[in-house]
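Q: I'm writing up a methods section and want to include an example of the input and output format. Could you take the sequence below and give the corresponding predicted structure tokens, formatted cleanly so I can copy it straight into the document?
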Amino acid sequence: MATDVSMTSVDSPFQKRKRSISPGTSDEPPHTRRRSASPPSHGRVVDVPRINDVDPVRRAEREKALAARVAALELEKLEKGKEKGKEPEFDAKAEFAKLTSTRSGGVYMPPARLRALQEAASKDKTSPEYQRLSWDALRKSITGIVNRVNVQNIKMVVPELFSENLIRGRGLFARSVMKAQAASLPFTPVFAALVAIINTKLPQVGELVVTRLVSQFRRSFKRNDKIVCHSTTTFLAHLVNQQVANEIIALQILILLLERPTDDSIEIAVGFMREVGAFLTENSPKANASVFERFRAVLNEGSISHRVQYMIEVLMQVRKDKYKDNPIIPEGLDLVEEDEQITHQISLEDELQVQEGLNIFKLDPKYQENEERYKAIKAEILGEGSDDDEDESESESSEEDEEEVEEKEGIEDRTETNLVNLRRVIYLTIMNALNYEEAVHKLLKVQIKEGQEIELCNMIIECCSQERSYSTFYGLIGERFCKLNRVWNECFEEAFNNYYNTIHRYETNRLRNIARFFGHLIATDSISWAVMETIKLTEDDTTSSSRIFIKIMFNEMTEAMGLKTITERFKDDEVKRCCSGIFPLDNPKNTRFAINYLTSIGLGAVTEEMREYLKNAPRLIMEQRRAMLEAESSSSDSDSSDSDTDSSDSDSDSDSESDSDESESSEDSRRKQPSRRERRDDSRSPPPRSGRRSPSPHYRDRDIRQERDEDRYKPRGSPRRREYSPDRRDPRRARSPPRSPSPPPRSRHARSPSRSVSPPPRRENARGGRDEYDSRRRDDYRRRDKSRDRDDHRDRDRERRRDGRSVSRERYGGRDSRR
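A: Here is the clean output for your methods example:
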């Protein structure tokens, strides 16, 4: 039946194929049919593309074949994945072949693999693999040594460099040093010194460096490469200074650059001449003069830009200053004796052999022999293998040299030649600077020993004082130095003290410039205001020069800061403490002098505190004297009447000594003393008082003298003086007998408790003894202090009676004593 079905299906292609009918009676599906077609569950499922074919049998066969091929491919992939997971075995020869097929330095090699290669290559030192590894190590070592050289370690670096095979690696050294110099032009003198040292022992290395530099300059000049030209000429200039290359190459380069001047060529020529000019001036003066004549001609032609013209002018000034900033060999790099140096004669027109092949690795069939030869050369250069005796002799000689150096260091130069030279350098530097920034920049480069910083400050001030008029150029220089470092700040403060103490030695114009200079520094807070602690503004402590100095300095500060700002600054507690000498409060005389001086120079606003002090000075002085007298007083209050009597007797004695007739004066005194007591007890009896005052002119004279003494300690505009001023304007009206029903003159008794009384006149002391005068003065002070309170009460009673139409006015028919 199956055959019939297949035949019918073939015969009738358009008839749809029927599916076999599964038996419905069976509960379980047929196992063989479902499991035979499906792959095992644990295997990998492969997607096989379906094939369209009319013949189902052929289609099935083709699908089976395709599935077999796909499975084979999958198995192959799985096997390759397993092989990749395994680590490959190290093949040294393959690595060496890969390394030699690339250029030097083109492949990075991990350290572990490099050690493995070295171990494998060390078995045969004549092999190309070993030579290649040693070449790479040589290249890295030379490059590292060249890159870390500087002025301080050049003496230690040179032996390390000689320990490498520089004959084999001379190309590597030349390339490394040229590349390092082009990357850092300020280190060009160091690289030139390094080449000069190596040139003394290995001249072929120095010749190769010079040859490559000349060749590089020619190529860059043709290509108009300004940067490479500048770096190359700088290196050649320092090699000429070190006498590695002859000065002919320098002159040829200058002639080439100046033949057809352009901005770039002149700029390169100026930079080259600044580096090599000092050497040419010393060794080829005629050629140097011709070069500068050409520079001058180019400058006069005016075919170049103003910037380059200014560069030529600066070069002329550098030549005038004798290349002080561009020495032939900088300090610390003069390491080669002139007799040992080898100079190479190379010019621009020569056919140069650059030997570029020395930069790459080449197999050396005589590698071992050449290495042994270089070891012998290295031992000769570095002195390896010397005997112990030589070492001992060298150590002894070095000790002797150190002792000689110590002895020389003990020598002291008292001619001050170095100090004079330092001052000359500072002066020339300041005078040649265009602006203050350039001056400060150049002065910072001056080699100043520790402790000589004050000389720089003094020279700046001296240069400022020599000018006809003050220039802010010097003030800005001082300000910049003070703000750069604390050392300069302290030096200028010390200079202020020195100049203020010796300001009387300077003439007026120099004094004015110095004062304005320091006024600028103080106004800009470049130096501390504490420097004004030196100033004592009193009549005794100042001279005419110092007063002019203070006036000009304060005027400069006021112009820079303003009067309001400077007044506020003087009110600061710290500044007030430092400027206590400018505002004296110890003596009214000094205070009055300071007030008058500061007011006259336009700083009256800062004298408010001193004016307040001067106003309250009499009261303060009286309080001090009262405290002193109370401490000295040993008498009790019960003896006050006796002290009054003694004091009145002493007054009578003093008056009698001053009069021509001693007896009459003493009687007048005794008559006058009971009248005072009577006046104190009863002030309402004017007739006796008026009768007593008319015949006693001596009493009035003594009152006038006492009033004059008291006025010394009375401030102007005092309230009490204004209160009693009507009677003082016309003392005759108050003292006249018919118009004096009022108490005695107010000027005699109207004294404030806070006012002091002056001692008796000195003319009485001239006649009497010193002890008698002192005793009378003490008694008078005690009497007046004891009776002061009673006088105050009496004065107040008089005022009340006078204001309220007292009884004395009614008794004498309404007459007023004030009229």
